[in-house]
Design a protein that fits this description.
Strand order of the largest sheet: 2-6-4-5
CATH architecture of the largest domain: Sandwich
Structural class: alpha+beta
Distance between the termini: 23 Å
Largest sheet: 4 strands, antiparallel
CATH topology of the largest domain: Jelly Rolls
Number of helices: 11
Strand content: 15-25%
Helix content: 40-55%
Number of strands: 10
């Protein structure tokens, strides 16, 4: 049933029954294809998206076209916080990082629901968690090695999937990290040589999660603990 599938998203699952009864007739299931752009910087946002099996990257795009990921969103959250924060648009680009499904809600419907205290508190807690991820990503990109950044990125992505495999190209990963392809490839080969991941034909399979956690920096746990503290459910539940 659609209602059961939609509530694979943790925010939708956390809605009280009264709010859920108003929401679910307005939710539309969508296929989210690899590389699909959900919105561009400055564009009017018509929907908010709740991934269930997809992962979406939020990217900051420079004037010369270069970009780097500032946050990743999966079934724990939503894409489009500017809609209820009052902006209506954002300076980032939202791109599907891992193909899957999700649900979208019209912008006007979300704005009306934001007046409900349970919805308000839930979405503000999520926003705080997302901002924490953005801040920690900025610090990580400045102070930690590319190898550590790659491990952090893989772990954050895994936490938003129900399998241990990511489906995406090396070029897309390098773009997310904001690094040249050869720089990413070297570090990925180190992880593969250590038996931590396997990469073949656009598929990255994590073989040794504990080993991946040992290779990353403090930033992964800082972000994870903040999500666990602020949000009602986590994948580890």
């Amino acid at each position: 049933m659609q209602s059961d599938a939609a509530r694979q998203n943790y925010l939708l699952a956390a809605l009280p029954d009264e709010e859920w009864e108003r929401w679910h007739p307005q939710l539309e299931q969508v296929d989210m294809k690899l590389g699909e752009v959900l919105y561009e910087p400055g564009a009017t946002m018509n929907y908010v998206y709740f991934p269930t099996t997809a992962i979406v990257s939020l990217l900051y795009v420079m004037k010369n076209g270069a970009s780097a990921e500032i946050a990743v969103v999966g079934f724990e959250g939503l894409v489009g916080i500017a809609l209820f924060m009052g902006g209506g648009s954002t300076s980032s680009r939202a791109v599907v990082q891992n193909a899957g499904r999700g649900y979208r809600l019209p912008a006007q419907a979300l704005k009306l629901e934001f007046e409900s205290p349970p919805v308000l508190h839930l979405l503000l807690r999520y926003t705080q968690a997302l901002i924490a991820q953005m801040v920690q990503t900025a610090a990580c990109n400045r102070h930690h090695s590319l190898h550590q950044q790659l491990c952090r990125w893989l772990l954050l992505s895994l936490d938003r999937l129900r399998v241990n495999e990511l489906v995406m190209t090396q070029e897309l990963i390098a773009n997310m990290l904001g690094v040249p392809l050869d720089g990413y490839t070297e570090d990925a080969l180190k992880l593969e040589g250590a038996g931590i991941i396997r990469y073949e034909h656009g598929h990255i399979t994590v073989l040794n999660r504990a080993g991946l956690e040992e290779c990353t920096c403090e930033c992964y746990l800082v972000v994870k603990k903040e999500y666990d503290r602020l949000l009602p459910r986590t994948k580890a539940d």
